[in-house]
Amino acid sequence: MACMDLGIRGKAALVCAASKGLGKACAFSLAREGARVTIVARGAEALEAAAEEIRRATGSPVITVAADITSAAGRQAALAACPAPDILINNAGGPPPGDFREWGLEAWMAALTANMLTPIELIKATVDGMIERRFGRIVNITSSAVKAPIDILGLSNGARSGLTGFVAGLARKTVAYNVTINNLLPGAFETDRLRSTMKKAAEANGRSLEQVLDERRKAIPARRFGDPAEFGEACAFLCSAQAGYVTGQNWLLDGGAYPGTF
Hints:
By secondary structure, this protein is of the alpha/beta class. It has a 7-stranded parallel sheet, sandwiched between helices. Strand 5, helix 5 and strand 6 form a beta-alpha-beta unit. Helix 1 packs parallel to helix 2, helix 4 runs parallel beside helix 5 and helix 6 packs across helix 7. The chain is globular.
């Protein structure tokens, strides 16, 4: 049986925070589909290792930019390496967990900069070019907490919800030009971020990390954590030619953990 051709071979893709975890998985899937991928992350060593892994597995060239995408200089460097992306994957590390009483204005501004304002700045810098070329796919990696807030992740809940509201309006303005904007909402995936969050919860309750991970796993109807590769494949589909009628959506990937009907 022939595989589906997603119609993105040769398209330029800019993937943020892609040295590991979900960002890396998205870059991998896009490269496998023939997109010309540029990946960005702060840590040069991990970034180069990820790029080499993707090159070896897919045969696709991968450009790397070691930069902090949440800074103006980092965004400038990324856009210099990939000046006219057809595909933009917005992603940044989530803010730390904790109690809202611990967070001052500085913590809130850092969260908003990373998880709301940086994606908006990158969209602003790239969307008009996509409109002119009559093709664009923007995917924001947010969180399942947008639909079901997680109490210790208040900074993330707030910042990512702000981005979601912004995208809801803009996505309806760009789709007429074959430019879609959607959000991918990961639940619990096997990533460093999951382990660090669960470690904090374990320490706060005087329990072992493995106990907390096991409880979290059992609470998911799928009875497992997600594989980042699954997430990457979902991202690639949203970036495909076939997904041109999907925009302004919040696609939840959580193994059934969210209990709502809508």
